[in-house]
Amino acid sequence: MNKLGQITLVLISLLFSGYQTIVEHERFFTVDFLIFTVIAWLVGWQYDRARFFGKKARASEESYKQLIDSLPKSVIIHQDNKVIYVNKEAVTLIGAKDKEEVIGTSIFNYLFPEYTERLNERMKQVKKETYPLNNIEYKFIRLDGSVFVFEGSSMYITFEGKEAVLSIGKDVTERKEQTEQLLQKSEKLALLGQMSAGIAHEIRNPLTSIKGFIQLFKTEQHQKEYYDIVLSELDRINDIVGEFLVLAKPTAAVFAEKDIKELIKDVVTLINTQSILNNVQIFVEFECDLPRISCEENQLKQVLLNLLKNAIEAMPSGGNIDVKVKVKEEGKISIQIIDQGIGIPKERIPTLGEPFYTTKEKGTGLGLMTCYKIIESHNGELTIDSEVNEGTIIEIILPTITQRVFSLA
């Protein structure tokens, strides 16, 4: 430890006593001289000690910053919601040129408005905990306007002598998209598995008819209309198998202009056998001159199949399902699926669509969650209204072809 302060103050004490001895002819070694020298020595020692620890703290702080900068994850240190330090990864994540462009700005500049309450609650928790909080997701906006999902943890620290919050995390946008894609695929496979029995039954019926008519052909007692029946039954099989393969085929999400009437008819054809086996009839009602929509055909079919399957399962004693399609308002189309099922309690409706929350005994809740995600990606809305023991109305609202369809997710 440098003793410059001690030496300087003791020398000042000696010089002052020397001055008094020469000018005022006082004794050099006096009680006052000893007291002042001891005080000078102690003050100098404290001064040197403070300088030593201050220098050590600055060196430690510099090492701390270097450590933060070397981390592969983004680190943001903020105080009263203002950024006071960021590492290189965070600068890149935000899309800034350098640290100075970010330091001093509010973290709310980069946060989606709907996540404001979540962040405020998070900051309250941070002040109460001594350990880092568990990871949580936020949606952020880069400086260029692009959107990403940030997954991070926060903890309370002391930085540059002041209390602050350190948040560390990473961009999980790609991982989240992959998870959602896998979720959709798994739900589609589950749906296809459940429908396989019905499809097999549906194909077996026309095959039985064809077999019977072929036996009639052998007896040469056939008539011309028999040929028409056989051909129509073969066409029926072809339509069912073709529709089944279109749904099952893995394809990239490509939006295209589609006729909603044809799309719904295809879905009803595919699920009709399952409804008949459950003593359920499906009635479809289309408004005249319906506008076309821009959609990903397979995804939208998956939504409709899921919702119709849920409606069938909600009517264990059978009943009717009404599918009504009409223009909701300018630029929007409405698809209503109305059943006469057991209904859903009002308090449970807000939680529908959450993973692993379901009203079914053996359900996972992932089917409805997938439906919400797909409709959201089509820039649409999915709402549920239900009365216990009366039935459920599910409404899908989609933009028509006149509106641009896009997704921020």
Structure, described:
By secondary structure, this protein is an alpha+beta fold. The protein folds into three domains: 4-68; 71-171, Beta-Lactamase (2-Layer Sandwich); 177-399, Histidine kinase-like ATPase, C-terminal domain (Heat Shock Protein 90), CATH 3.30.565.10. The chain contains nine helices and twelve strands. The protein has helices at 4-23, 31-70, 88-94, 116-128, 173-218, 224-248, 260-277, 297-313, 366-377, and strands at 74-79, 82-86, 136-141, 147-159, 162-171, 256-258, 280-286, 293-295, 319-329, 332-339, 381-387, 391-399. The strands form three sheets. It has a five-stranded antiparallel beta sheet. Strands 7-9-10-12-11 form a five-stranded mixed beta sheet. A two-stranded antiparallel ribbon has the order 6-8. Strand 4 and strand 5 (162-171) form a beta hairpin. It is rod-shaped and about 150 Å long.
